[in-house]
Design brief:
16 strands, FAD/NAD(P)-binding domain, alpha/beta, 18 helices, 476 residues, 35% helix
């Protein structure tokens, strides 16, 4: 059987790209080197039997709000979004916590004197989030469909996060935004460092921060089921070491980090593209710890016991200091730690009164130390007695994360540094950022616009580029 298109890599971008090609009538085969599909959206037992852990991506505001995934009817293939009572809590000293809720009014009330300023910033972004997302999830070269709103957002997003923090005087609002901005894994002083914080916060108020019932793997499973429904196929345990390994096809999508794509493309890759791919800059790393906790985490701040996501960073100043150190290759004494308690929204992940708790710390790129104790200490700082409840633990260093998913070079789970230039022009400055310079071959990983996040838009956009070149109808 002749295959029209091959997709190398079955992460959410590879699968979304494959579905887009199949919707246009192409016969598509996805080739995945690992034994299972999903890339960063895999789930399974890693601590004690019966506990379901997410291996990487855990909470999915960008997936539930994805302009493309939302068109696919993935609920027909078992995808269900579940919500914790509280979207995000950020504990502070003295047993207090700042709280981000889907309900903008409730969030504003909780921020006291800073509430009105929070509303002034986020009410317009929330109201027009879907229109903004439609533009911002496309490559920069694409003409915006909502130019006035998108342009206004661009002026806000280009600012350093520390400038945005000046809008608030109290510790709660400042820490809350700094923690969300820190998801970019970049210094809060850099131009453009407000962008991800603004989008994730607006996404929280518009759509919430949900988890996938049954684990993040359910997202990949639903995409795979949609692909099969369209006639596509998936082959796991099938590494592609060179384009020469592939039979002739009309198009190829590579859900690979740029350096790996350069290796696979070999001498066919134009010299200018090879230079860009091999010099592609990766960002800081994650150090991941999964816990099996009897009775749940004993948070001092009661609201944290209802939160799907908990940010452990202290004040905005402490977060900025830690992120600056990490970006300079130094391990901070008190790193920023993210904790997810998916079982609060999806109780089926637990086994009786033993619950899976997901955590990772921001660490320098390629960090080769053991940060397990540091992560536990950071949680214990806000949840005294945690260690007495831990009955199972596993940790993944940056090297282990790269071994698990080769796209996570040096432990960089975002597949690229988030400077203003890289956000705008990743993976290289080109009219079509997905084109490799080899006819019919396209890059579709999170190293392409719009970047990291379980939204499938990198794959969808790359597939659209391929289809336009083939003269075929492009899915919206």
């Amino acid at each position: 059987m002749t295959v029209d298109a091959f997709v190398v890599g079955a992460g959410p971008n590879g699968l979304a790209g494959a579905v887009t090609l199949a919707q246009a009538g192409l016969s598509v085969t996805v080739l995945e080197a690992a034994a299972t599909i999903g890339g960063g959206t895999r789930s399974g037992e890693v601590t004690v039997p019966g506990l379901l852990h997410d291996h990487c991506a855990a909470v999915h505001p960008m997936a539930v709000a994805s302009p493309y995934l939302g068109t696919l009817g993935l609920d027909r293939h078992g995808l269900r979004w579940e919500y914790a009572e509280t979207d995000l809590a950020h504990p502070l000293d003295g047993g207090r916590a700042a709280v981000l809720r889907r309900d903008l009014d409730a969030t504003v009330r909780g921020l006291g004197a800073d509430g009105p300023a929070w509303r002034r910033l986020f009410a317009p972004l929330t109201a027009h989030y879907d229109a903004l997302s439609e533009d911002l999830m496309r490559p920069l070269a694409a003409l915006p469909r909502h130019p006035v709103r998108t342009g206004a957002f661009g002026l806000l997003a280009a600012q350093p996060a520390q400038w945005t923090l000046r809008r608030w005087r109290g510790q709660s609002a400042r820490a809350l935004f700094a923690g969300v901005a820190a998801h970019a894994l970049s210094p809060l002083t850099g131009p453009g460092s407000s962008a991800i914080g603004l989008m994730l916060t607006a996404a929280a108020h518009r759509h919430g921060w949900p988890v996938a019932r049954g684990g993040s793997g359910a997202i990949a499973d639903a995409l795979a089921a949609r692909l099969v429904e369209l006639g596509g196929t998936i082959e796991t345990g099938t590494p592609v070491r060179s384009l020469r390994d592939l039979p002739p096809a009309r198009t190829v999508l590579l859900d690979l980090a740029p350096r790996e794509a350069a290796r696979v493309c070999g001498p066919r890759l134009p010299a200018r593209v090879r230079r860009a791919y091999t010099r592609y800059r990766h960002g800081p790393a994650a150090y991941k710890v999964d816990l099996a906790v009897e009775g749940g985490v004993p948070w001092r701040a009661e609201v944290c016991r209802t939160a799907g996501t908990v940010h452990l960073g202290g004040s905005a100043e402490e977060i900025a200091e830690a992120e600056q150190a990490v970006s300079r290759g130094r391990m901070p004494r008190n790193p920023f730690v993210l904790v997810a308690q998916q079982y609060l929204a999806d109780p089926g992940r637990s086994a009786g009164d033993v619950h899976p708790v997901w955590a990772y710390a921001h660490v320098p790129h390629g960090y080769d130390g053991d940060a397990t104790a540091t992560v536990l200490e950071r949680i214990e700082q806000y949840a005294p007695g945690l260690r007495d409840r831990v009955i199972g633990l596993t940790a993944r260093s940056p090297a282990a994360l790269e071994a698990y998913n080769p796209n996570y070079v040096g432990g960089d789970i975002l597949n690229g540094a988030n400077s203003l230039a890289s956000l705008a022009f990743r993976p290289r400055l080109a009219p079509d950022p997905y084109a490799t310079g080899i006819p019919g071959v396209y890059l579709c990983s999170a190293a392409t616009p719009p970047g990291a996040g379980v939204h499938g838009m990198c794959g969808h956009n790359a597939a659209r580029s391929a289809l336009r070149k083939l003269g075929l109808t492009v899915a919206v």
